[in-house]
Fold each of these.
Amino acid sequence: MFRILATTAAFALASPALADDVTDTLQSAIDAYSEGDIAYALEEIAFATQLIKAQKAGALNAFLPEAQAGWTREIDEDEGRSLGMMGGTGAVARYSNGDDSFNIQIMADSPMIAGFAGVFGNAGMMATMGKIERVGREKFLNQDGELTGIVAGRILVQASGGDVDTMIAHLEAMDFKGLAGFGS
């Protein structure tokens, strides 16, 4: 792992345009490690990991659909970060139209999703749990108005709190093909 960190930091330091908080933090970890301060090196590595996850979450926000006509969208950065605490990367938006509102959340690469992937990959099993809704080529489980789907076996997409047809209309605007390749 130290070799990867050293290579990454060396590359970043050789390319000043690429220097940022992540590379500065990685360099700090390397410096601490070189000085024998393992505890601080580990803290810096954890902080660099957090910074990278925040960048990845920002990129995931781009897959939240734009609001349909008459609706507004507000991306909830705090909620997205809290989803990341479950071991992956998250993005959340609230859609509003007067008194009507709903949320769409995306969670990528969380170990928790692996457990759901088998169920959501089997239409017969999904049908025993609720109604299946098609959104483009994706299948979503409708359980009492909450829509849940798994994209590419590793990305959870949920829409909840609103009229099912309205939520589906918003979900139809998502780039599921692009989302499937997220982080690859």
Amino acid sequence: MNRRRRIYEGKAKILYEGPEPGTLIQHFKDDATAFNAKKHEIVDGKGVLNNRISEFIFNNLNAIGIPTHFIRRLNMREQLIREVEIIPLEVVVRNVAAGSISKRLGLEEGTQLPRSIIEFYYKNDELDDPMVSEEHITAFGWATPQELDDIMALAIRVNDFLCGLFLGVGIRLVDFKIECGRLFEGDMMRIVVADEISPDSCRLWDTVTNDKMDKDRFRRDMGGMLEAYQEVAKRLSILNGNEERPAPSGPTLVK
């Protein structure tokens, strides 16, 4: 791993130079972060679970014609992906009131929204990823109006797929975040889904008990984060009885 050229390191992943031009290797770390890394612990095995869950979702998105950067999983922690130019936006799709929208609008958590709502946040840790409007995005050149239309269309299609996928295994998709990138192929450019889709980037509640099965267990000091991620993987049939699962050794505080 040390011989590979590191391209970028984020809070939860590292990008390395890929084996072929136009490719990268995406490595999933065990770091658990919240509030723009103001809260940070190591949770042994989290990266393995997110890699497998994200692989499963991206494979399915590719299969139904939703373009993504994903090519294939390389090992338990790494994926081969297409190199894209990341658009500096976090695209959040909300189906149920939770988190910041509940605080901003005084909505009780768990309230079904009248329809799915798409929000945009400018990716900037120093500014705590502020919420922005379509006017901001086009005015500052982060994306063109056509790209914004493409991003919103992708977000709606991903939401439709994920809602059905999770509902089928007894999980309610409350909200999720995606990132998008520009994929250049010769003279052509298209917008694709990038980054990851996992319990790190989704709010997932059990349909019967409303138990949280996502990173809110870490954000809110609820405990049982790794076990919740394992349960998501189990319900999606990603982990079977013959496969070694990450041992729930618990979080390690990073000072």
Amino acid sequence: MRSKWITHGGKQIFYQDFSNLDIEKSHLVKDELNAVQEVVMAQPENSVLVLADFTNTPIGRDLMDVMQASSARTKKFVRKTAVLGVTGTKRILANMLMSLTGQKLVMFENESDAKDWLARN
């Protein structure tokens, strides 16, 4: 698993690392999603601060069903989600994901701002 716990501003943040994955190997994104679900669902409800990094990873419709199911399963455990690397078509898909699952995703252009936002109450 590429994802890991990090600390920023005294807060534990679960850094979900989907960055730099090849679209031809979409199974890598799916495998990582399955792994992070297990970690998130082992935490208390409404407690997890998530930083999801999709920088340089193409996301197509083929992954939307998997991402929607993952989001639906983990939603009650997540307090806040910051997302990196979501521009262009990926932003449209992220907006669709939010409307389908009701899980709010806040997009950021740099990691430092995302971590600062997550660390604030």
Amino acid sequence: MPLHINIVAVLAAVVINFIIGFLWYAALFAKAWTKEMGYDPNMRPGRKAMMKGMVLMVIGNFLFAWVFAFYLAGWQYIPGANKMNPFAMGINSAISVWIGFFVPVHISRVVWEKHSWKLFFINSGYHLVATIVVALILSYWT
């Protein structure tokens, strides 16, 4: 049985995820994140570095949304999953992906890379919010 992926939903999720990332790291937590990462708050990356970072972020957001769309499409094969409404499907899948994939990576960074717990909550909080929003976009548009 084929998996049906809505490319418009994937592209919308990429754009929205990019906006969330910008708001999260540039507006809401810019000072705290910069401090926790040990960066000089007065130093700004050059234009070339910013463009490279944004391009890589868009590519990463696309890969995340594309693979997540396949993950959600696969739920159709789980008995009873088709009875869940799109909101429940989105939230359930987002929480499971966040706990299973993002939280372990961020915990490892606290343990092995000496990141602070504050940084853990900033980064994993972003991934929780972004994963929920992407999951809801994909589950409603698929």
